[in-house]
């Protein structure tokens, strides 16, 4: 198949998934792109024709101007919040190093990716809450220093780039520096080496 401006082997492009149907996550539907390129079918032939279409489009300035390329959104992803979270989870799951299940994932760089960072934090928090069988009402009703809140805060600090301000707000833990204090004591006591923490962090995908 003709290479499309270097995209064919780029693992984190939707174009890669277009050409590997069996690897597509359940939420991905490529029919819209194929339809827009001339009513192409999601078949080997249709995907080859789509590659030809993209190569033509990449070199035709008049066509780009007609489609207002310069005004297209340059955000990190287009779609609903649930779609973006699913995309983040899919990428994290595919890139996770099984030998380092607690390795901290780096923060996405750039102002336009702030949303992606926050969505990753939210996804990790949701997963923790589900694992511990907690709900939003528990956050408000239980004390700021509840053991399970500190457990989640420690996981978020280890697994994501979530800030103290964000964690304190989401878990109703008081002032931001309290998060550092609680998590610091948690580590000093060796609680991060115990089974509850290890089990929870091993099951969080961000």
Entry keywords:
elongated; mainly alpha; 206 residues; 2 domains; 11 helices
* Cα end-to-end separation: 33 Å
Residue stretches low in confidence (pLDDT < 50, at least 5 long) are 98-104
Class of secondary structure makeup: mainly alpha
Instruction: Count structural domains.
Output: 2
Order of helices and strands: HHHHHHHHHHH
Shape descriptor reads elongated
- Main pleated sheet: none
Radius of gyration: 22 Å
Please tally the β strands and state the result.
0
Share of residues in strands = under 5%
Number of helices: 11
Average of the residue pLDDT scores: 81
Report on the architecture of this protein.
With 206 residues, the chain is mainly α. The chain folds into two domains: 14-71, no CATH class; 81-202, no CATH class. Helices cover 55% and strands 0% of the residues. It has eleven helices and no strands. It has helices at residues 14-18, 31-36, 44-59, 61-66, 81-95, 114-131, 136-141, 147-159, 164-171, 176-188, 195-202.
Write the SSE topology.
Layout: H1 14-18, H2 31-36, H3 44-59, H4 61-66, H5 81-95, H6 114-131, H7 136-141, H8 147-159, H9 164-171, H10 176-188, H11 195-202
State the gist of this model.
This protein has eleven helices and no strands.
């Amino acid at each position: 198949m003709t290479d499309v401006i270097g995209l064919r082997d780029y693992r984190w492009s939707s174009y890669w998934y277009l050409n590997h149907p069996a690897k597509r996550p359940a939420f991905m539907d490529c029919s819209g792109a194929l339809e827009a390129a001339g009513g192409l079918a999601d078949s080997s032939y249709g995907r080859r024709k789509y590659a030809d279409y993209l190569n033509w489009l990449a070199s035709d300035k008049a066509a780009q101007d007609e489609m207002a390329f310069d005004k297209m959104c340059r955000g990190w992803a287009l779609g609903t919040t649930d779609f973006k979270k699913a995309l983040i989870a899919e990428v994290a799951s595919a890139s996770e190093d099984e030998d380092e299940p607690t390795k901290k994932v780096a923060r996405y760089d750039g102002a336009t990716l702030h949303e992606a960072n926050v969505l990753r934090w939210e996804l990790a928090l949701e997963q923790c809450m589900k694992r511990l069988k907690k709900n939003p009402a528990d956050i408000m009703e239980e004390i700021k220093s509840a053991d399970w809140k500190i457990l989640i805060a420690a996981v978020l600090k280890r697994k994501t780039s979530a800030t103290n301000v964000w964690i304190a707000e989401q878990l109703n833990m008081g002032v931001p520096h309290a998060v550092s204090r609680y998590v610091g004591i948690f580590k000093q006591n060796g609680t991060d080496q115990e089974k509850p923490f290890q089990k929870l962090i091993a099951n969080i995908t961000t």
